[in-house]
């Protein structure tokens, strides 16, 4: 099976004074503005790192659901936040780390089974496999 999805971006102007928009094939994002100030100076709005974080969090949550299902558990809820670290590195900037923070309610799962599934999902999630960055995980099983 091969699935292809796309996102697009348009940039106009110089790095610091320019502006761009980002869109997705589905239309969920349509001409959402982004800029240097939104990415590096804390101005409100979108930026590539938060989009990567959303993609990673959603992929990880689905992978965890799949692995828990294979182990005989049906999660009631999986909530994941992915914190993406963009840092100055040799030759410019790079995404150096992503921290996944997930909380899940999984009836019948014990801590050992949950942690095993959480770590398998971290390693096996297709988006995790994309990154050349340290990916850390804090997974908690909730009542």
Number of distinct beta strands: 6
The CATH class of the largest domain turns out to be Alpha Beta
Q: What is the percentage of strand-forming residues? A: 35-45%
Q: Roughly what is the average pLDDT, rounded to an integer?
A: 94
Report the principal-axis shape: elongated
Largest beta-sheet characterization: 3 strands, antiparallel
Q: What would you note in describing this structure?
A:
This protein has two domains: 7-40, no CATH class; 48-142, K homology (KH) domain (GMP Synthetase, Chain A, domain 3). Helix content is 33%, strand content 36%. The chain is built from four helices and six strands. It has helices spanning 36-40, 48-70, 111-124, 126-130; strands at residues 7-12, 19-24, 32-34, 77-89, 92-105, 134-142. A three-stranded antiparallel beta sheet has the order 1-2-3. The protein is elongated, with a radius of gyration of 17 Å.
């Amino acid at each position: 099976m091969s699935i292809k999805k796309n996102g697009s971006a348009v940039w106009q102007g110089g790095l610091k004074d320019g502006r761009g928009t980002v869109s997705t094939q589905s239309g969920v994002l349509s001409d959402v503005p982004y800029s240097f100030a939104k990415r590096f100076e804390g101005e409100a709005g979108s930026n590539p790192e938060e989009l990567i974080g959303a993609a990673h969090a959603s992929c990880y949550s689905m992978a965890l659901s799949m692995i828990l299902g294979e182990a005989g558990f049906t999660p009631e809820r999986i909530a994941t936040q992915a914190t993406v670290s963009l840092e100055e590195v040799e030759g410019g900037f790079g995404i150096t780390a992503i921290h996944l923070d997930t909380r899940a309610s999984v009836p019948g799962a014990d801590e050992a089974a949950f942690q095993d599934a959480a770590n398998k999902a971290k390693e096996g999630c297709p988006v995790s496999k994309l990154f050349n960055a340290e990916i850390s995980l804090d997974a908690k099983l909730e009542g």
